[in-house]
Amino acid sequence: MTVSATFSLPREMAADLERRFFWWEQVGTAPRSDVRILAQAMRYASFAEVRRLETAPGVAALAAVMLSSEPGWLDERSWEFWRGRLMRATGQVIPNEAPRRSIDADLV
Length: 108
Prior knowledge:
- By secondary structure, the chain is mainly α.
- It is built from four helices and no strands.
- The protein has a domain at 11-17 and 33-90.
């Protein structure tokens, strides 16, 4: 299930998170979305950074990121960590497992 997250990070925060959590060159000319930047930060954040993310942009935005994340954005460990915190904080239902890639062998 994919839900469109409709929020934007403050420009300075987005730039800071992107600078710290993306160590590879961007593909193409389109900028990374705030949802993608935040998902990457959620995956690699220290506990101090977790607290910062919970304050701004806030738990509702973090839950929206989880519900709209694509396969590979959050690993199992990060998913479980954030799922527990955000379900408790927001009361929102978040799936047990992160989205996964699937390959239909009949189509290959």
